[in-house]
Request: fold
Amino acid sequence: MAKVSRRQVLKTGAALAAAGTLSGPVFAQEFYSRPPTLLPRTRAPRVVVIGGGWGGTTVARKVKQQAPEVEVVLVEQKPIFMSCPMSNLFLAGVKPLEWLVFDYTNVVKDGVIFVQEKVLDIQRDRRLVRTTGGYLAYDLLVLAPGIDYMYEAIPGYDEVKHLMPVGFKPFEHIALRHMLDRFDETGGELVLYIPPPPYRCPPGPYERAAMLAWRLKTKGVKGKVIVLDANPQPIAKAPGFLAAYNELYKDYLEYHPNTRITRLDYGKKLVLTELGDVPFSLANLIPPMKAGELVRTAGLGERWANVRVPYFLSEKDDRIYLLGDIIGNTPYPKSGMVAYVSGTIVAQQIVERLKGKPLSEIAPALPQNICYSFVDSEEAIWVSANYSWDEAAKQIKTQSAVDNQRSQANGIAAIGWATGIWNDMFGPA
Ligand SMILES: Cc1cc2nc3c(=O)[nH]c(=O)nc-3n(C[C@H](O)[C@H](O)[C@H](O)COP(=O)(O)OP(=O)(O)OC[C@H]3O[C@@H](n4cnc5c(N)ncnc54)[C@H](O)[C@@H]3O)c2cc1C
Reply:
């Protein structure tokens, strides 16, 4: 990556000033008001993608594969990718961390420019992205930064959040897994809190409950998973999860529906709820969620960002596509599958647009979803949805299917689903 150092810029500036091009104070003013450029522009159209997760990596790679003449810049704050889908298998000790982790080598081999920087804000009027490494100009921008936690929704949480990894964003699982390993020795109450929707991966917390109970049962830990659910029942695959809880983990899991947390008292190791206080030895509290901060700083939405249904263009700016969990005004669940399929669709639409097709002539395409959940080390259940656009009603129609009967065949299909998508995102072209 060609980067111009600050010292080089200062040297050039000093030389220009000495040559009389700029006088001292004017130069200083010029220098500080002109931000450093991270990548100089070429004549190629440039698509900048923010977030190298399920949505962002997919769209970046597919635009470049379909239109090599386009400059595609993927900006991601982390050097490597870790999958949240299947991460409950890592927490339970069924799969190693390495199974979930990929690097961007093959994405870069395809010609995508990978920039490991954090995006600080987006200046829509100037079509600039400000990163920790300098500014990036764009012709089209894809925003896929995933979610943030609303710790403030649970009084007492924000002050101790560094002690309580949530494990709903990549890499937080490592600290959580260490805590679970220590919990094996002490045992006690392992409290898992599930917030009201919308949040990332509706069935994810219920799968985690089952896999943590599986862990306690197989290791013979003297402890119990206490699930405090703000919802009246599991918000996806309820019969399948409740059957697993009752039939497989009666002595290892207690499920409490309609139980909202009102406060956390970390010092006393107590979770306060509308139904009474619950003591814990270890707590994994999943807070309510919102779109990543950039959505708000760029003025693209409040809690979530809205798309121009049935497209993925921002309601506010037709040079910006929104992808993955940040979207608020569609029935799509916040899932890796939706982010991945939407990434494929958006890539196709961007390529058509850059080849000169007017926006009004680009046909809409909608994603589909399938979400597997493991309930033990081998068996899984699933739910799926197909989305279509009803032009007459101007609405998205949803057609769902579910399999609440846990089976090994579903478990094998789940592994095939994950490895197939990871391979498409990160494997050789
Ligand atoms: C426990 C669990 C289980 C799950 N199971 C499934 C499943 O079985 N099936 C399924 O389909 N989905 C599942 N999901 C959901 C899935 O992980 C998310 O829906 C998916 O990751 C969303 O993709 P995304 O691209 O929106 O965000 P992400 O994949 O989170 O990517 C966002 C990326 O943006 C980067 N980023 C954020 N801000 C910045 C910034 N300012 N500058 C630079 N980079 C930034 C982040 O580092 C991250 O890499 C699960 C989630 C969890 C937590």
